[in-house]
Amino acid sequence: MMSFWKRFSYNRGAVIGLVILTFVVAAAILAPILFPQSPWKMVQRPFLPPFTQDGLLLGTDALGRNVLAGLAHGAYVSLLVGLVSTIVALAIGVPVGAAAGYFAGRIDDALMRFTEFFQTIPSFALAIVLLAIFQPSLTFVIIAISIVSWPPVARLVRGEVLSLRTREFVEAASLSGLGNLQIITRHILPNALPPIIVLASLMVAQAILLESSLSFLGLGDPNIMSWGYMIGAARTVIRTAWWLSFLPGMAILLTVLALNLIGEGLNDALNPRLTRKSE
Predict the structure, then answer these.
(1) Phi (first) and psi of residue 42, to 5 degrees
(2) Long-range contacts of 250-253 (CB under 8 A, 24+ apart)
(3) Is residue 278 in some structural domain?
(4) SS3 of 176, please?
(5) Rounded CA separation 179/177 (Å)
(6) Measured between alpha carbons, how far is 179 from 222 in angstroms, rounded to an integer?
(7) Nearest to 69 by CA among 38, 46, 105, 107
């Protein structure tokens, strides 16, 4: 564990990303405590600029709602969508990729053709179609993002399993009488875990961007405040009230940047074969 943190902390960008993400997570957790009122509630006159009113640090939007409260509650929505959709995508992609890589042959061909079917359709377009068919609620937003996110997981896991299935420890486990499921879950997947963890951190960032884009287009949950909704609602007044688009946009930028930096740090920490240049 100490060696992991040492390798992770060697990447200064990853440490900065971890600090930024810590602030975002803290804002999401403390949002109901710091802003107990609904972020939809009107608290002052509209278009109040930042730093001009006590208690309203970042001003108000076009309907007089607290912008800072919206950002805090939006952090919770973005992180929730990113984490849950990534977990669901991993739950789909890991078994598919593991089965394809381990059994190979016709099973591999069938599962990869199934995976390619989802990859032939642009992920954003497919998410829009799914939300246009179903109700644009938070649950369906998570489902739509999960459906378009699992194919890269399946391909990564398949490649890792293909490279591990012929190793000596796998053959020894097979000769000892272990079944295929036990070999995959106990011996192969634990050794394929590092690249999966790195990919998962990047998938969370991608899911946040996708949710923000869908909310910007009005396909998010209309009852939940999100960063994408805040940008979409302020696009008509961007010249007169630029901060209403700028602030949630910066929140998205910093969160996605932090997750990408953390992904790079995890790649360094979980792959001991990587060589580093000494300063």
Answers:
(1) -75, 125
(2) 251/24, 251/71, 251/74, 251/75, 251/227, 252/78, 252/208, 252/209, 252/212, 252/227, 252/228
(3) no
(4) coil
(5) 6
(6) 49
(7) 38
For residue 188, give the DSSP letter: I
Task: Please name the amino acid found at residue 162.
Answer: L
pLDDT in tens, 36-73: 988 999 988 888 888 887 778 898 898 899 999 999 99
The answer to whether residue 257 is domain-embedded is: yes
**Number of folded domains in the chain?**
1
Q: For residue 278, what are the β-bridge partners? A: none
Q: Which residues of 39-49 are buried (b: 16+ CB within 10 A; e: fewer)?
A: beeebeeebbe
Q: pLDDT (tens digit, 9 = 90+) per residue, 66-103?
A: 999 999 999 999 999 999 999 999 999 999 999 999 99
The residues facing 66 across adjacent strands are 60
Integer angstrom CA distances of residue 99 from 33, 55, 177, 191 = 45, 56, 19, 15
Predicted model pTM: 0.90
| Residue 275: inside a domain | no
The amino acid at residue 114 is F
Give the pLDDT confidence of 135-148 residue by residue, as tens digits.
Answer: 788 999 999 999 99
Q: Is residue 68 part of a domain?
A: yes
Place of tokens 């459906």: 147
Domain of 183: which CATH number? 1.10.3720.10
